[in-house]
Amino acid sequence: MLAEFFDQYAASYDFAKRDGGWCYEDGCIYRGLLELSRATGDAHWFDHLCRLIATQLREDGTIKGYAPEEYNIDHILSGRVLFALRQSAGDRFDRALDLLASQLERHPRTASGNYWHKKIYPDQVWLDGLYMGLPFQIEYGLLRGRGDLVDDAAGQILRAVSLMRDKVTGLHFHGYDQSRRADWCDPQTGLSASFWGRANGWLSMAMIDAYELLPGDHAARADLKARIIALAEAVLARRTANGLWLQVMDRPDLEGNYEETSASAMFAYFLLKSARLIAALAPLAADGDAAVAALRRHHVSRPEGIWRIDNACEVAGLGGFFGKKRDGSAHYYTTEPVVSNDPKAVGPLMMAVAEQERAEIVHPLARTGG
Predict the structure, then answer these.
(1) Are residues 143 and 79 in contact, defined by beta-carbon separation less than 8 angstroms?
(2) CB 202 within 8 A of CB 348
(3) Measured between alpha carbons, how far is 185 from 182 in angstroms, rounded to an integer?
């Protein structure tokens, strides 16, 4: 069932931007296809990836629609697959990697050393950005022999987790403004007001991917492991009766709140991968597997022969955006559009299923039925 869904989705995938320009949402699908290829050994997942990304990368290594001077950390995510592509396709992927890394070399930072989320959001760190840029930086640092880049990325993740974690729930606030100037932040702490599911999902994936990439003797690895264990505990405590997660994680009482599929797919991936990499978390494989099964059962369907996954938040953020005031309140997150077949849900679901394949959990891609 899911293999058929993913194959149909990739075969008909249209880029997130109308002009086919570089976008982090495409990167979610690229990551999913790459992980399926690695986990199954089935070349057609890699073929889908190569076909899609080929239209965005020019022979000289420049990238369609990519503007480094925007200093948008989202722009880095799609580049993570270039590390695998360079092994078979050579120079243009190396040049594209260097181009993306050059953005990070100049990317503005907060006074405490974390990358701004975007140039247009000065002094702000969003959980999303930790996934968008920092695993890439670790892998690039390892490739180029730049231990300073590895250390810096690990430090940024740990610093953000420390700043943005709520001690009561163990969850993390979506944003932090070190300047305290943004109208969405608490003037005392600089933190936003709510626990958005997908923001915590981005964070969970950033942490476990960084943990996997860091050398075994890296000084940050033990601290990161402890924080992964703590986050897993907090995430599991917030499951719905279906075994999934809400758009606003700690507010089951909130009118308009709903099971959100992108965050749920991200947490499924996080739990399954944590179970594989951290012995103490091995039992979480069952929880991750149950989350994938719940997504299939409750939110994946095939009306008129077209596979779809529903109930994904299209986009959410902080601060003004095309005339909309995004104040970070719990109510705000329930007002954003809810869509089907969003790449931010499909890509992480691909990644979660790839983790099931690695663990040989009943060969999920061979499963049938609803």
Answers:
(1) no
(2) no
(3) 6
| CATH number among 1.10.730.10, 1.50.10.10, 3.40.50.150, 1.20.1290.10, domain 2-12+119-366 | 1.50.10.10
The SS3 of residue 120 is coil
d(CA 29, CA 18): 16
Closest CA to 247 of 127, 117, 336, 351: 336
Q: Measure the CA–CA gap between 173 and 340, rounded to whole angstroms.
A: 26
Identify residue 29 by its one-letter amino acid code.
Answer: I
Q: What is the pLDDT of residue 361?
A: 58
Q: Which amino acid is at 168?
A: V
SS3 339: strand
Reduced to 3 states (helix: H, G, I; strand: E, B; else coil), residue 311 is coil
Rounded-to-integer distance, Cα 186 and Cα 327, Å? 11
Indicate the average pLDDT of the chain.
96
DSSP annotation of 115: B
In DSSP terms, 177 is beta-bridged to 124
Map out the domains of the chain as residue ranges.
Answer: 2-12+119-366
Decide: helix, strand or coil at residue 57. Answer: strand
What 3-state DSSP class applies to 18?
A: coil
Q: Judge contact between 234 and 320, C-beta under 8 A.
A: no
Where in 317-364 does DSSP place strands (E)? 338-339
pLDDT tens for each residue of 154-205: 999 999 999 999 999 999 999 999 999 999 999 999 999 999 999 999 999 9
CA atoms within 13 A on the CB side of 92: 12
Quickly tell me which residue has 């964070």 as its tokens: 203
Q: Give the residue carrying structure tokens 């997504």.
A: 295
Instruction: Measure the CA–CA gap between 56 and 340, rounded to whole angstroms.
Output: 25
Helix (H) or strand (E) holding 25: helix 24-40
d(CA 320, CA 310): 27
Beta strands in the chain (DSSP E): 124-126, 175-177, 300-301, 308-309, 312-313, 338-339
From the list 275, 153, 250, the residue with the least C-alpha distance to 199 is 250
Closest CA to 129 of 95, 153, 149: 153
Q: Is the pTM of this model over 0.85?
A: yes
